[in-house]
Every structure is written in structure tokens, then in C-alpha cells.
């Protein structure tokens, strides 16, 4: 992947059209028309041996005859000709090509190689990039470029739209033109064989012309790259996504459409949420989202005020707001008094503000001005219903004037809903022309506002500082993996409760006392020793849910009960499934269930995103898509809490308010430890804990089913999000004998990292930040501590303080560009720990890390005043140069040995 080659896609200075045509309705003809009519200022070069000119533009008989190397080529020919054309273009020096042809993966040459594979091989050989195949093309309105088969051009704007569906592209484009909404870029990915969502998100996340990104997704291929790029971009600008395939049938259709891997929709939802993206469910929501993004300001809060000329629409808006978890602003006595002075005596005297059905433009304008003047609202929704006495267009004009003239116009968000069709159409056009969001229904307007609210909430939740798991909870991965590998060596693919218990206990998870017996006599012997009451369960590799075949009997209180239960279970299982192999029975102590609640936790393996953790109610008929809240590991306590809240909010988990029911902290500890097991133990393919007994602080796993991977399975890239690299922890000793822990930074480190940053002297802060700066905010600290280990690395050095707590003494960090061509580092050490070798240890560790990461170059900058930093870098092998103009010292190290280059 190379962001540099994407410059030719987003900033082309010349375009070649391969297969340009004078024949109406041919792709090469439509392309030429669109390019010539869009105002592109660079050379447009048609390539075709059939014509001397295409639409009046001199044509070239072949690619080699082109007078210059095109930055961008659009291939409009049949699929069979594409591989050879790609090879010629790449040899000629073209950097990016758009392929329009469809079905290339289904056509093969005489050697059985698909045309798509041939084209990609030819492109990669020369470093050329491909958009498509099966792409509609792209539009870059700021450049006047329409290199697409779209039926219309796009207006310039600040929204980027990227879609795997050409039909969705044209639908959105048609709607946006009607609404006067523009785009910074409009891209049809097609089959996304080369250029994909991740690279485009990286580019658009840094693009100054783009303030928001919208995606239409059928499927995702590169899970880790996709999530890393989305997480990085969503820190800077909102990303809204519409994902097809919410149903099983829809997922199959989406797979046929793009050829991608079909995944669980609930897992997709969890991935979007984890990356800070906001999902919309349909095109109506998508259009509302486009409307709000086109005209909105960053949301400062969530308080919504509503003005209406009718009670009914206002009530509908309030209902929608509250049902979606929104907040209705409360008006102060001062604001109410000001409204009293301009509204009739019969007005509502509260929010929503009913300013009476015959309200004229003046009354609307005065009411809106009062609300905008107050500090009690973050957004205002203005509603209008048709009225014989109303001045629909005049009111709209008056409100546009008020909004544009008000000093808070760039801080408050104003949304409007003019209900109706013919009577409201002209007014809605006035709002659109004035750059103010307008919607056809009260519910649509509130939904658009809640998109902004949810994006704001997601960002805050993702920046929350997680608490640490209590120190007394074990995490013994060595024991767990030894047991799992021993089971694999015996050829086991499934571990039941009695076999999985010691693995779970290695992570502090409690299981009920469990024994495996071969017959009733062994069961009685165990029962007499363990004591009653007991439960007896069938053990069969052919039965996943024992209760489905009545293979469980509870509250057995005597040897006679045990023998009777064993016989009855055996008979019932054989009746339900005559082929089932009964290996024996499971004997369990009865759990004390009074006042406790049963829940279910599972880890599934999604074909797209890998392991996913599911939380819901118990039961054998269980579909994670419908019955569980889903989250991607790794989880920490904050993310686990978010998962539990989501489960309760969506009623996938119900708090039944039992005396010893759900305890938030205990649930979060359990979920976080399950996440640790999945990360540490790649041998585990899936995990089903059903039921789990939640009794306040005590959580007990009653029935466990663990499925294992084959011992030879490759699990190196199974995680969608790179977990904390525990293997990089090491203990070192400084010159003064102090032992320090060198390790990657964690989100939980934020409070101590803030204390470390605040401990730096004014001089050290000046050198570190290239100037005077104030103390770090929580948001800034979240960026520094909640890092994506796939994209950046920060090592900290900690030591025990006088009170036994860890203190951060120093930190070094570096981030790499998306192409992994260069990492840039920065470092700081507490003043009272300088000169004892700490900086050298940290920088050496960073160098080794990026050497192992195959990063070619490590660079850094420091001020002239920081000669100690420059001397340290030089001693470690950096090339140090002085930039007299910028007053900076540059440190540069080639990390690859001459034999690697």
C-alpha cells in the first residue's frame, strides 16, 4: 500500500481514456463527455485506434503514442483486453488506473489464470495502483474532475463518499444534487481488488478538503488495516457507514455482489462502534446524515430546543428524541420571561416552544433569536406545519437571516423541518440554499441530530480512562496454554466444563466443582465424597446443548437419585438421537441460584473480524446477531462496561433486579479476563459459557464448551485489533542500580502519564514540545495513551515509588506512516532521572522494535538547545544534521542493513 501513489488518484494533472469512443452510450463516450463537461483543467487524452479525434479532442492510436505520462488512466474496454492494457500503462509510467469492466474474476486465459489476477500481477510488477474493477469511476468536484460513468456531476463540498455499489453512488449523487449538497470526493470502489477502504480512509482522514466521510460497505477484506485506518480517521472527523447484509439473505446477496467474505452483522456493528464510526441503517438515514454533515457545526453538547407552530409535530419530535436517548433542553426563568414578551399568552411556557399555529415570520425570528442568545441549548430544531395563515417562505427567509447574522452561528446547530409537500418545498429550498439542514419530518430531523449526538458520545466513550483489573485476579497464560496444547496433542477438538475448568481458573474465573464419570457407579462414588445436592449431565461429542435432549437432571439428593437419573438421561438421549455416542456423565455440585441471574457469554469466530465476544441471556436457541451485545477483543474495563451498557440498552441483557443479580464491576472483570484468555490462547477457536450465574460480586461458570483449533492452524493474524504486546515488557537496571520496567503504554496509564508530563520542568517541556504549552487535557492524554499498536508505539519506563505504586520516569514514542516507510520519534525523561542511562535504554528499545517491524527509517527532530538529545542519538548511530533555517536538529537512522536494501 502506498499513500504516495494515491496522490495521483486524488490530485491528477492529466487523464488518459483508454477505449474512448464517439459512439453514443459506450463507456468511452460517456467518460469523455463527463470529463470534458466537468471543467478539468489538465490534458484529457483519448486513446483509440478507431478515430483521429474523440468529441473534438485529438486521439492517440495507442498508449505509447501519448505525449506525456498520464497521472490517471480510465480503462473503458472489454475485460479481455484489460490485462495487456494495464501492463502497457504500467510500463509507460502511469501510476493509477480505473477499471470499468466487470466479471474479470470469472474469465480465464488459456493457462487457467483469471483476467483479474493477470491484471493485478501486471500492475504490481511496476507499482501501478488499480481502482476497481467494476468501478463506476470517481468524481473530484474541487478539481472539476468527473472520471465516471455517472449520469450527473457532483457539486463541490466537504463530504467524501466511498461506495462498493455503483447504484448507491448514482442514487446518493442524484439526491445530493437536488439538495444542493456537495462532495470533496466521490469514489466508486467496485470490487476493491487493490485500492480499498483502508487506504482511502487514511488519505481522506488527512485531507483538508474533507470534513466528514461516508461509506457504503458490502464487505471488508483487510480487517486490521480497515479498523486501524478508521480509528485514526474518526479521531479527526465523523465517519458514517451504511452496511448491507443485515439479514442472512442480504449477506449472501452482498457476497455475490462483491465477492467478499460474508461476516456476522452484529460483529460488523461492533467493529464500526469500536472504530468510532456511526452506522446508519438505510438510505433514508444516510440522506439525513449527509444533510446534517453538510451543514452542521461540531456539537458542543446534547441539549435540544424545539420551536413549533403546532403541538402535534413538537410532541412527535420529543417522543423520537427521548426514545433515542436524547436530552430536551430546560429553559431558565430568564429565557421564559424573554419569550413571554414576544409570544401570545397561550404559548407553552416550556420546551418545546409552541408559538401558536398562525405564527408569522417576525414571531419565529424573535423566538429563535432569544434561544440563540441563551446559553441553555446546543442545538435548535425549528418545526413548521402548513397553515392557511402561515407565511411559509417568508418565515424561512427570516430564519435564514437570523441564523447568518447571529454571532453563535458557528457554534449552535440549527435544524429545520417544514412538513408537507407543495406548500413546504420552496421553504426547504431556501434553507438548503442558505446552508441550513432541513428535513421532511420531525422524526427525520431528530434522527439526524441524534447521529451527531451518538458520534460525540462514541468519541467520549472511546477516550474513557479504564480502571485496572484488581491485582488479586490471576492471569496465568503459561498454565492455560500448556493445558490447551496438551489437549491438542491428544487430538481433542472440544473441552467440556471439567476439562476447561483449570484453564479458566488460571484467569481467576470460577467454575462449579465438576467431575467426569463413565457410569452411574462412579457417579455415586463421587457424590458420596463430594456431598449432595448434585446435578448430572450427559457427556456426548454429538450433543452441544444438553437441555435440548433432556440430558440434564438437577437437585439429586441420594445415590438412588443418581442411578435413576443416569438411566433416564441415557434413554432420553438415545430416543432423541440414536446415533449419539455417550462417553459418560458430568457430575456437578448444585449452584446456589436463589437471588442470582443466569446469563450467557460466548466467543465466536467471525470469518471477517475473527474472535468476537457475545453477551446476552441464556438459552439454546441463541443467535448473536439478534440475542447478544457483541464486542471485539481486546477489552479493558472501560470497553467491557460499554459492552454491558449496550447489552442492557438494547435489552439483549435484562437486569431483573434480583437480590444477588448483576454487578457491573464483576461482569466487567469477567469479560475482560475472557478477552485476555482469547488473546493469550490462540488454541481456542470458540468458547460458550452457558449458563453463567451472576450473584452480585460472585460469578460462576456453570457449563463450559470450548472448541479448539487444529494444532497446525495459523493464528498469527486472527485478531482484528492488535492487542497489547506483552512480550515487549522487560526489566532493566539503570546506572544508579534502580530497576525499571520498560513496556508499551496502556490506556490505564493515563493518570500516571499525566503526572509524568506535569513533572517535566519548564525547560524540558519547552524542548519536548518545541515551545511553551499548557498542561495536557484529558482528550490529548487519551490520544497519547490509547494507541493503535499496529500504527504506533510508545514505550514507558516505570519504577516503584515510595508508596509502592508505579511512577512513570520516561517515555519514547513513534508513529509510522501508513506505508511503513518511516517512523518519527519523540522522547522525554523526568529531570530527576536524567543522566543515568534511561533515555538510552528507551531509545535503544524503540530502535530494536522498528527494526523488527521492517521499518526502513527512524527520524526525529529536536531544538538547538537540546544538544544532549542530539549527542545521545549520535552515540546510537543516528546521522545528526542541523537545519539553520528552522533552528532544528534532525536525527536520521537507516534501520535496514546494506544487505536488506
Automatic annotation (TrEMBL):
Domain ATP-grasp: 501-733
Family matches, as InterPro entries: Acyl-CoA_Synth/Transferase (IPR051538), Acyl_CoA_acyltransferase (IPR016181), ATP-grasp (IPR011761), ATP_grasp_subdomain_1 (IPR013815), CoA-bd (IPR003781), GNAT_dom (IPR000182), NAD(P)-bd_dom_sf (IPR036291), Succ_CoA_lig_flav_dom (IPR032875)
Protein origin, superkingdom: Bacteria
Gene Ontology terms, MF aspect: acyltransferase activity, transferring groups other than amino-acyl groups; ATP binding; ligase activity; metal ion binding
Domain N-acetyltransferase, residue spans: 740-896
Membership in a protein family: In the N-terminal section; belongs to the acetate CoA ligase alpha subunit family.
Descriptive protein name: Acetate--CoA ligase family protein
Organism: Shewanella septentrionalis
The organism's taxonomic lineage, starting at the top: Bacteria, Pseudomonadati, Pseudomonadota, Gammaproteobacteria, Alteromonadales
